[in-house]
Design brief:
heterodimer; A: 296 residues; alpha/beta; D-Maltodextrin-Binding Protein, domain 2; 3 domains; five-stranded mixed beta sheet; three-stranded parallel beta sheet; 12 helices; 41% helix; B: 253 residues; mainly alpha; MetI-like fold; 9 helices; 78% helix; flat
Chain lengths: 296, 253
């Protein structure tokens, strides 16, 4: 069984090294570490076993404010679209939910180190990610990126960003298309809040982040951002999926029918509305229609 | 088709490390290798600039502390305590995300572009932060100068300023050198916080690569070796200066 000791980042990092040290077996230094790791090697699907045995589902969620994941100011409890999804998963699995707050730049490490069993962190599917992790094939959302710029900015299309500094989060999937398609110069910050502050400090001409989870509500609801506007169309809109560690097929097989059921019943659309996510995602409606026809 | 020798070397490196289970394929992509090498250079630049500037800041803080103007001494002491007792990262965020934004907004009113780039902020914050530590190390050095030496100098008619610059400080510097070298090594390592505000140092370049490729371990090894080499050279330089400035008959060899 895979063990995880979420005590200090240093320990987690070491555990990660031990895990990955297996590949280093031929390097003398790593031999001992490799042995330790080999003894702990997981069988068929360690995650599902771990969830069942510990009676808790650890879900990595980005709790950075906004409708997808934030802290309730009154109770300090996490709430939001992704939290509702995680809670429903835990309920259906008959276990307790444990929300693990993650950052875009380190969420994959949290998952791989076993600190989180699954990620519901608005992490879109890309081929690169699909090669290193497994995922629940039915997406639960669709997210693309938009840029925000000051209202009086000369930038009106993505092409206008060529050669200009653009703020984003470290680990953002928009980095590559911004460089390769539009020739922009990405400036990666630890998280979206730092990136947005840097935009306000005029260190970039634009900031590029997820549209529905972050920028749309920001522009719509936050008076401080009244003088900013969004630039579309959405960059590489991609399905948000639930991520698991590589090889956790049983977990995936258990979760996929649940997500399909969410679409079939239209539950996700209700949760979206309940959490104030606007405009309603056309992708959710399409998925609902698609799965409504399918047998339960 | 001719193959460039460097490209050949890189391919050999990638293949050899691949056999160890390490993924260094990023060195074959110019789009990733170039920022990485540029990042290494940037880290060296930050380290060099902050070493020079922090020493200057340390000296200024020390002379303020020793000033006869009570207010000046008090301000310096307050600054030293504040910077020594707050995390560098928080200082950097406060300076870059708050102070810098306020400056930008203030200058915007008069239509001037803010000349302070993230790089400048990193050098500034790190220099002032470590300057406080240098000031403390130098203070210890100053206090270690024997009273008799100072009395002897005073009897020769040196005034306070000359006494400080010609007698006390040269001796204090020698006493403080091990602590200063230590601070410098810390400083080189602390330069990694530049990555937090998107200054393209080696850490930032690595983060940008590993978030796309998930080769954290591979890049960590590179960063480790790089910083190891950098701090080792700072250490060697420090020891060399210690040897050069050694007072014969004072302390052990």
């Amino acid at each position: 069984m895979r063990t995880s000791v979420p005590v200090f980042p240093a320990i987690d990092f070491t555990l990660n090294l031990i895990d990955r040290g297996r590949r280093l077996a031929s390097l003398g230094v790593a031999v001992m570490l490799a042995c330790t790791a080999a003894m702990q090697t997981a069988h068929a699907d360690a995650t599902l076993d771990h969830i069942k045995q510990s009676g808790a589902l650890n879900v990595g969620i980005i709790v950075d404010g906004g409708h997808f994941g934030s802290l309730d100011p009154a109770t300090q409890q996490p709430l939001g679209f992704n939290v509702d999804l995680a809670a429903e998963l835990a309920r259906r699995l008959g276990v307790k939910l444990n929300v693990v707050s993650v950052q875009p730049s380190t969420r994959v490490q949290f998952l791989q180190q076993g600190k989180a069993d699954i990620l519901i962190a608005n992490m879109e599917y890309t081929a690169e990610r699909g090669a290193i992790l497994d995922y629940v094939p039915t997406p639960y959302y669709r997210v693309g990126g938009v840029a925000i710029v000051p209202r009086d900015s000369p930038i009106h299309t993505w092409e206008d960003l060529r050669g200009k500094p653009v703020c984003l989060s470290q680990g953002s999937s928009y980095t590559r298309p911004l460089i390769e398609q539009y020739g922009a110069v990405p400036k990666g910050f630890r998280g979206a809040s730092e990136s947005l502050l840097a935009l306000r400090g005029h260190n970039c001409v634009a900031a590029v982040h997820d549209a529905a989870p972050l920028l749309y509500p920001l522009l719509r609801e936050n008076a401080e951002w009244r003088d900013y506007r969004a630039i579309g169309p959405e960059l590489i809109p991609a399905p948000s999926v639930i991520w698991t560690r590589k090889g956790e097929h049983d977990t995936v097989a258990t979760l996929d029918p649940i997500v399909r059921d969410w679409h079939r019943t239209g539950w996700l659309i209700q949760v979206e509305a309940k959490n104030g996510v606007a405009p309603p995602s056309p992708a959710l409606l399409a998925l609902h229609q698609q799965f409504e026809k399918a047998s339960p | 088709m001719s193959v460039h020798p460097v490209a050949l070397l890189l391919h050999g490196f990638v293949d050899a490390t691949a056999r160890l289970g390490l993924d260094y394929r990023f060195v074959l992509s110019d789009y990733e290798l170039e920022p990485f090498l540029q990042g290494a250079l940037t880290t060296v630049e930050i380290a060099f600039l902050t070493i020079v500037c922090s020493l200057a800041a340390g000296l200024v803080l020390l002379s303020m502390c020793r000033s006869r103007h009570r207010l000046l001494a008090l301000v310096a002491r307050g600054f030293i305590e504040l910077t020594r007792n707050t995390p560098t990262l928080i200082q950097l965020y406060c300076a870059f995300l708050v102070l810098n934004m306020l400056i930008t907004q203030a200058l915007q009113g008069s239509g001037i572009e803010n000349p302070l780039k993230p790089f400048v902020w990193v050098v500034l914050v790190l220099s002032l932060h470590k300057g406080a530590f240098h000031a403390e190390a130098l203070r210890a050095g100053l206090d270690a100068v024997p009273k008799l030496t100072l009395e002897g100098a005073a009897s020769l008619g040196f005034d306070r300023r000359t006494l400080l610059w010609r007698i006390q400080l040269p001796l204090a510097l020698r006493f403080a050198l091990p602590a200063l070298t230590n601070n410098m090594v810390e400083l080189v390592k602390a330069s990694a916080i530049a990555s937090a505000i998107a200054v393209g140092d080696i850490t930032y370049a690595s983060i940008m690569i590993w978030t796309q490729r998930d080769n954290v371990l591979e890049l960590m090894i590179l960063i480790l070796l790089f910083f190891g080499a950098l701090t080792l050279s700072v250490h060697i330089a420090g020891r060399w200066i210690e040897q050069r400035l050694r007072i014969p008959g004072y302390g052990h060899q």
